[in-house]
Give the backbone structure.
Amino acid sequence: MEFRLWAPNAEHVRVVIDGHEHAMTAEQHGWWRADVPAQAGSAYQFRLDDGEPLPDPRSPHQPDGVTGPSQLIDHAAFPWTDSRWQAPPLAGGVIYELHVGAFTPAGTFDAAVERLDHLTDLGVTHVELMPLAQFSGRRNWGYDGVYPYAPHNAYGGPLALKRLVDACHARGLAVLLDVVYNHLGPEGNRLSRFGPYFTDRHKTVWGDTANLENPGSDHVRRFFIDNALMWIRDYHLDGLRVDAVHAFADNSARPFLEQLADQVHALAGPLNRHVLIIAESDLNDPRVVQCPDTGGCGFDAQWADDLHHALHALVTGERTGYYADFGRLADLAKALQNPFVYDGRYSAHRGRTHGRPPGSLSGHRFVVCLQNHDQIGNRDQGRRISHLADLGRVKAAAALILTSPYVPLIFQGEEWAATTPFAYFCDFQDPDLARDVRHGRKDEFASFGWSPDAVPDPQADQTFQNSKLHWDEPAREPHASMLQWYRQLIRLRRATPSLSDGRRDNVRARFDEDQRWLIMQRGPIAVACNFDQTTQQLSLDGHSQPLLQSDPAIRIDDGLVRLPPASVAVLRRS
Amino acid sequence: MEFRLWAPNAEHVRVVIDGHEHAMTAEQHGWWRADVPAQAGSAYQFRLDDGEPLPDPRSPHQPDGVTGPSQLIDHAAFPWTDSRWQAPPLAGGVIYELHVGAFTPAGTFDAAVERLDHLTDLGVTHVELMPLAQFSGRRNWGYDGVYPYAPHNAYGGPLALKRLVDACHARGLAVLLDVVYNHLGPEGNRLSRFGPYFTDRHKTVWGDTANLENPGSDHVRRFFIDNALMWIRDYHLDGLRVDAVHAFADNSARPFLEQLADQVHALAGPLNRHVLIIAESDLNDPRVVQCPDTGGCGFDAQWADDLHHALHALVTGERTGYYADFGRLADLAKALQNPFVYDGRYSAHRGRTHGRPPGSLSGHRFVVCLQNHDQIGNRDQGRRISHLADLGRVKAAAALILTSPYVPLIFQGEEWAATTPFAYFCDFQDPDLARDVRHGRKDEFASFGWSPDAVPDPQADQTFQNSKLHWDEPAREPHASMLQWYRQLIRLRRATPSLSDGRRDNVRARFDEDQRWLIMQRGPIAVACNFDQTTQQLSLDGHSQPLLQSDPAIRIDDGLVRLPPASVAVLRRS
């Protein structure tokens, strides 16, 4: 078996396999190589210049966690059953974001398989897994991973992940994975022992960022791009969601993000499968998804948060933190037509002009949500919007998301207004680091005006346990009604071409800022929302028939709709 | 008169005019305003929260240097004589870079006027002034300026600069100015007392960089953009050369560089004048000059160093520092057709892949040189290429630059192979800073393998004096011959459409790596260069007649050219 390692500063390198040491040969550009007998299941490490044995930066499996040896994997050995699999298009799709540890009580890949029928019943098309890279400890959101190639051991490791993906494909569900390439976690990260993976020339909130433009950066880029390709090739994933692309520091003529998207897309042909690459971006910059010929990075889609913020501020009345920039129905109306409310407009929260107009880009290039892991978890007590506002308003907001021209994303449990929070949790072993994380969360929350007491202890196992879904809830009210509402909306969206065509140019929104109602029209479909505490009677464009209504007291008659407080009706022009 | 100041953190602000204090009124976004009687010539300062009086960040004149008060200027009062002025196009032009302090013995704007006839005789079209912003001390290259709006007092200040520009225009010379927006100098910089002009989130070799994307950055951008507009509007400059655009840290959706170029170009219409914006860029990235619709910054042109490096390494034999990436005739041949030898190729010096192909961009979008202030000054003893190689080879290199498809730039004195060096000089007042600068230069030189003794003391006045041109030289040999060579080449370039058409697609270069000759063909013009120590006999494409030859022993006959060692002939196909 061939072992390769990039260690440009080492004088000599050995690979240690099941306790036996083998010298490696230096090749060009800091690479080392050895051909040594070994088989899947063998434990191995590398020794640089007689130092302590270290796991492989590209370790495919860390069965004993971040400090133990790496384990060899034979990717060819898995009995895949998805040979005819083709992912459904993202256009017209609905994404379901889940955290493997908190999705089920057991918190494993195999336990998640047991709940897939819930997702197919719900009608979503794409499952998006929060990051899986091996992190320190038993529980973590995933953004502190340090072995990007190794599916976390506590979730079940490589084989179990393949079983989950195969099971999803068997049910017609595509699988996306959240990957973190702008930094690695603070604990168990030994990459700097091997080479210049990171630079301190730019600071991120998470510390040193990946070296994408300094000496050695070709190999650092290769490290992350090969990781992306591995997930798609060896784990049959249908696409990636790249975390926080705004945090990359890269002035190079050929930006890493463009190179990454290009190489991920280049796999589609040889594999004869669709592959997606989606960015999380805070930049409100259409160039993330524009093609390289027009100066873009060539991503298929990017997250766009402004519709979330507009809805959240309106529904909850909150105006702290970034919600200070939102709250008016005019913001919501704009967000339904333009993924960037801030498209070159001054943002008081940011203290600067923000964003750029998205031009004629399709709505399919933007992923929107009413809730996601960040919006729920990065706030007091990890509270969902259904813990903050009455369910009628939440239903109205969900209806707008699921009839919008964008690609909707749902966060696990949102579909039944789960009682469980989703708080930030981690399991760092170093007490100093644990203390820093605790304090850091409290400081972050203070900036939103939340009390430090509103921060569940991120290190406590109980915080993790509390964040797990309760699977008995969906059968009970009011959860059953909410689940039915989401099912109906998703079914309507998928069955109605004018809802899933991605067109933004024909979205019309009428609203009254004082009376707090809004009617969005998309082709023949209208969504009439009353966010107010009073009943409103609104005129419709011609005769309409009701498709869905959140409240039995809604009346549609003679071109008028009568909406009780906090209610919504979805209508079709007849 | 209206005084305005951005001081977002101040509680109260006063403007002090000729010793009298006047309270300012707070306006939106951290701005302060006062309408107070004052006239041109008044000394003024600002007091924030009862602190010491400080010069205006936008001071138009610092008659007593960086620490003294600012002085009011009436820009409308200058008797301009250039009302019908239109700058010649950069396409087909030749730029002459000069340092006002070292161009003449007196080192002033007015003394420079006395030498303009030399430039018109030489035939250049654009004068490019090294930075003029008020810096600390009497002498400096200009990259340590701290009052970007104030032409340096020791050069003569605002009025004298206007006289120089007006005199240039009277002679048909356009004037470009080098401006530094990525950092300010280390001494006398009080901008951070006023507001968040800088960020430490990104490091440059010069320290903190301009805040272009954090809170308050709209006003910081305005500070620099208004400066650019001032030079063009109030000083009648024809364009700007923006220093080191690779050092900007700006991930925003609307990059500062794009905004700057856009607003500079927007002045052209109202002023009814051509205005240029040129970037110094180390990125080998065509997007600097591409239009924003294709993801570019929209600059008119950018500096491209690879042709310099290819020529310098070939002519001098040097291979240290960045010259390690060059030296082959193949590099030179590529550089004559492609401004980026490194256009996505691995650079050993940088330890990574560098650059991006320039596509079909015109040669007019790239400024090239055989020498500039950096290439001469950032090396042992500030030595020019004519101090390092025999003049025959230098003439060959100059011929290639001045017949290339790009926009050529000449550095003061290059045209007569001046004996004077151009070393780095400064005049910092703080002894600690002075010591750091001395040591920093020695460390930088060590990376090129030059002895620390090869660094002239940057703080010594003698280093500055030694760098001044000797105007008696051009009348003597070998300087007179070199000057004649440059005059002839420039005249030929400007008179020959096929040399100044910017076409890169019809550049052909034949060469022999071992015998060290190269023939470049551009339409009917051929440039045959022998860089070797032996005589070479080369075949030409058909019959040719000589236009210029560096050596009387050159023979052209029957489709052959016989080139003695280190010689060059420029030929026209007959």
In short: The first strand of chain B starts at residue 2 and ends at 6. Residues 321 and 448 of chain B are 5 Å apart (CA to CA).
